[in-house]
Amino acid sequence: MTLEIILIFSSALFSIGIFGLLTRKNIVITLMSLELIFNSVVLSVVAFNRYSMSSAAFNEINVDNFFGVLSGNILGIFIICVAAGETALALAMVLALGKFKSTVELSDLSEMKN
Amino acid sequence: MDNSLLDIFIIFVSIIGIASAIYVVAQTNVFRAAIALALSFMTVAVVFFAINAEFLGAVQILVYIGAVSVLMAFSVLLVKDLQTASSSTMGVKYILSSLTSLLIFIVLVFVIVGTDWEKTHEISDPIINEILFDKYAIDKEKGIITTVSPETNISEVRDGLINDSIIPIGSMLSTKYFISLQIIGLIIVACVIGSIAVTKNTIENDEEGDIEAI
User: How far apart are CA A50 and CA B74, in angstroms?
Assistant: First the structure.
């Protein structure tokens, strides 16, 4: 039951993120929606790791990699790292855009269209 | 913690998280949206702590609340005219987007509720018993990996691993996933160098502009 509750929470966060990504034009709020999506994915991965041990996770277990039980947490850490790097780069680009073009609206950035 | 009590706690926390996430996407003030985003991340961290993933919860607080939310708030303060964002315009696009996200949510909930998650556990049980999983376990009193008899219950071994997850995660990151960890470090270094390059260009142009103005 706990797994279902956490997965519903995660899917709610995911769909709210999709909604923000589709409707908002501001770059920073778009980035926030992306972070919500990443976060929901990490949450569901960790919940699966905790509550539903698949046979694939156990097949790898031997003396050398005994701790394969927690591989979902490792995947979560990697997702968080990549998301943090991406956010840092994107916010630097937001700063540069605010300096050069004096705009942070996605609809104003259409030079590469056509 | 009792299981039903844990469920009620997680439901309560999830409601706060969903409300703050809706506040993020509906808010026109970007600074307030950043603060609400921090609250939403915090609720996810609380859920992590509740389901025995303490390391992930700590990483969530350090990276997301401590770095990402603060970085967003900083960028709001640094960029002119960013504080008040344009609100989403009502129209066909708005209705279509809300319908799309609602559809995604409904489909996901149907799949989650319709799947028998206990069954996947049952399927994997005989396979677990076949493997030499019962050779090693964590000694809960001493906190070390020991050899246990084949009679030890598999779920006990697994619970021991999950309850003391920090030491296993550390040893996994330094042995099996060592290359992956290095590659992640390389990616973050590339991101940092890229962001420094982008903002450095901005500052140089700003100084040149000042000289021209003089």
Answer: 35
Query: Comparing A71-80, B19-28, B86-95, which segment has the lowest mean pLDDT?
Result: B86-95
Tell me which residue of B166, B157, B175 sits closest to B53, measured CA to CA.
Answer: B166
> A25-39 pLDDT, tens per residue?
888 888 999 999 999
Chosen from A21, A25, A81 to mutate, greatest number of chain B CBs within 10 A: A81
Q: How many domains does chain A have?
A: 1
Whether B58 and chain A come into contact, CB under 8 Å, resolves to: no
Let me know if residue A92 belongs to a domain: yes
ipTM of the complex: 0.85
* Containing structural domain, residue A90: 2-53+66-106
Q: Which of A1, A16, A79, A101 to mutate to test the interface with B (most CBs of B within 10 A)?
A: A16
Q: If you average pLDDT over residues B194-210, what whole number do you get?
A: 73
CATH code, domain with A81? 1.10.287.3510
Beta strands in chain B (DSSP E): 136-139, 144-147
CB contact B198 to A (< 8 Å): yes
pTM: 0.80
A109 in contact with chain B, both atoms CB, cutoff 8 A:
no
Q: Which tokens is A91 given?
A: 């916010």
Look-up of token digits 């706690």: B9
* Total residues belonging to chain A: 114
Chain mean pLDDT for chain A: 81
